[in-house]
Amino acid sequence: RRVHGQHSQVELIPDGRLLDVTDENKFRYVNLYCALMMTRLIEQQTFSFKEGFHEFIPRHLVSLFSPSELQLLISGLPEIDVEDWKQHTNYSNLTKDDDLSIWLWEIIAEMPHATRALLLQFSTGSSKVPIGGFANLRGSTGIQLFTVSRVEADVSRLPQSSTCFNLLKLPNYPSKEELKDKLMTALSGGMRFDLS
Questions:
Q1: 167: nearest Cα among 196, 189, 190
Q2: Which entry of 107, 145, 153, 164 is annotated as an active-site residue?
C-alpha cells in the first residue's frame, strides 16, 4: 500500500508476509484483503461519516431500517426501464430465447417498481440504474452488463447472486410459477451471496 508517496506493508494476519498465497488459502487471502480495503484502511473516514450522518438522523431511527431499505429511503425509488435492462443483458448457460429467460423477463415486467428495485439491488448491490442506462452498469472491473446464468443446482434452492459481477444465478426451474416463487422468496429476505 502507498502512504504519502511511500510504499508500506500491511499484514493481513500476524507474520502474513512470511506466507505464500496458494490455491488452499486464496479465498482466505481475498476475504482478508477485502476486509482490509473496505474496513480497516477507511476506519477513520467511516467513523467521521457516521458521526456526521447521525447528527442529522439519530442512530435509533436509522436502526429501524435494513441497509436496502435505508438506501431506497435516501436514494428514492428508481425508474427501471425493463426493455433497456433486457437489451443490455448477457446470458450464461442459456439464451434469451430459453424458457427460463423468457419467464424471468415476464416476471420482471409484472413486478411493481419497488420489487424491481429489490431485484436490481439483489443482483448488482445497488437499486440505482446507472446514468445512461443499463449499458453503463458497472461491476468490480469496470463496465459489466447484467448477466443471467443458469446454474447446475437443485431446483429447491433459491436464486443467488454475485453482486461484484452483476450476476443472477438461477437453477433450471421447471415453471414460471416456481421461478417467481423462488425469486420472491429470495427478495423478501432469503438473499444469498457468494464469491465467484
A1: 196
A2: 164
User: How does pLDDT run across 64-88, given as a tens digit for each residue?
Assistant: 888 777 877 777 777 899 999 999 9
- Interval 97-110: pLDDT, tens: 999 999 999 999 99
> Could you tell me which residues are beta bridge partners of residue 160?
169
**The pLDDT of residue 112:** 92
Q: What is the DSSP letter of 12?
A: S
pTM of the model: 0.65
Question: Is 149 in contact with 168 (CB distance < 8 Å)?
Answer: yes
Which residue intervals of the chain are DSSP H helices? Answer: 26-38, 43-56, 59-62, 67-75, 82-87, 99-110, 113-124, 176-187
CB 89 within 8 Å of CB 136: no
Nearest to 11 by CA among 46, 41, 44, 47: 41
For residue 167, list its beta bridge partners.
147, 162
Amino acid, res. 9:
Q
What share of the chain has pLDDT > 70, as a percent?
Answer: 93
Residue 161's alpha-carbon distances to 12, 119, 126, in angstroms, are 27, 10, 12
**Residue 34 falls in the annotated catalytic set:** no
Task: Report which residue type is found at 74.
Answer: I
- Grid cell in block for residue 79: 425508474
